[in-house]
Write a structure and sequence with these properties.
mainly alpha, 21 helices, elongated
């Protein structure tokens, strides 16, 4: 009881974490039902206050002790959330991610992300995002069943916490490099298109990256995904970003327009939204010496010159 109270103070939390063998002892106490709640309280306080060393919770033995009660089930919500916060902290470091996979934690993280409980979900999503950022595990998320909860968390109605939506988007963007087809099947496309109305550059950058990756092979994009993207207003949203205040976002939007224009019905929609004229303005704002950017913008323009009006605007 005393240790749990002391751990609420940042100064005492650091002192506790620095005691030799303290973390291993606390992890072992998580396995003792009569003191489990207090042990979890101390560990989660250390985690929340940033007192845990960078290499903490990287060993399979410690993580197994934290995972075992979650696998057994029947824990109160506060204890589940506390343990999940520790698993999320472990996922910050490469050895911790390796250990999480070794002790069978990913299905627990997926269940937390899909739980509907805001506290549990954000910890599950954060851990999955760290795993998605690691090339060793990026292609395993679909096998763990993580893609559908991640995609659902892009929806503001599902993830009321903006942090959770940003974390889920980070994971989706990383996975889009290796498993675009699985993300399309999980319903990512229309949700990513809806995010093009966001105002934060880092969110827009991730959403645009994922859209380009998902659209890279037009033949692999199912017709129902194309219909959903059109219904989500993707052409007009992508064109609006060609006039965004940040040059990097404008260039990324040009890449997205070029990728989307290869999909059926998209070229006409992009042209009707003024894409040709917007790209022409963007090209005029770009230094000719910046050849990669000039090429990206010019490549996006070509398929949008579908009628005299768009060609005249571009001229």
């Amino acid at each position: 009881h005393t240790l749990a109270q002391l751990s609420e103070s940042a100064v005492h939390a650091v002192a506790i974490a620095q005691q030799p063998g303290a973390l291993a002892t606390l992890c072992s106490l998580v396995g003792q039902p009569h003191v489990r709640e207090l042990a979890i309280s101390v560990l989660s306080n250390l985690c929340a206050l940033g007192a845990l060393p960078t290499d903490a919770l990287a060993g399979p033995d410690d993580l197994h002790r934290l995972v075992a009660p979650l696998l057994q089930g029947g824990l109160p919500p506060s204890q589940r959330a506390g343990l999940l916060s520790l698993l999320s902290r472990a996922a910050l470091e490469g050895p911790g991610r390796q250990a999480l996979a070794a002790v069978g934690a990913p299905p627990l993280l997926v269940a937390a992300a899909d739980s509907g409980d805001a506290n549990e979900a954000v910890h599950g999503l954060q851990a999955l995002a760290h795993l998605a950022a690691d090339e060793r595990f990026r292609s395993q998320l679909s096998g763990w069943g993580a893609l559908r909860p991640l995609c659902h968390s892009l929806d503001p109605a599902r993830a009321l916490d903006p942090r959770a939506r940003a974390v889920a988007l980070s994971a989706v963007a990383n996975v889009s490099f290796v498993e675009p087809a699985a993300l399309l099947e999980a319903g990512a496309a229309p949700r990513l298109c809806a995010l093009l109305g966001e105002s934060e550059p880092h969110l827009l950058r991730m959403a645009l990256t994922a859209i380009v990756n998902l659209s890279a092979d037009p033949a692999a994009v199912p017709h129902h995904c194309i219909a959903d993207m059109l219904a989500a207003g993707a052409p007009a949203a992508a064109v609006r970003l060609l006039d965004y205040f940040d040059l990097e976002i404008r260039t990324a939007a040009a890449g997205a327009v070029a990728a989307l224009a290869r999909l059926p019905l998209f070229a006409e929609g992009l042209a009707a939204a003024g894409g040709g004229a917007s790209l022409a303005r963007l090209l005029g704002q770009t230094a000719l010496a910046d050849e990669p950017r000039v090429h990206a913008i010019a490549s996006a323009m070509t398929p949008l010159l579908v009628d005299e009006a768009s060609r005249g605007a571009a001229r």
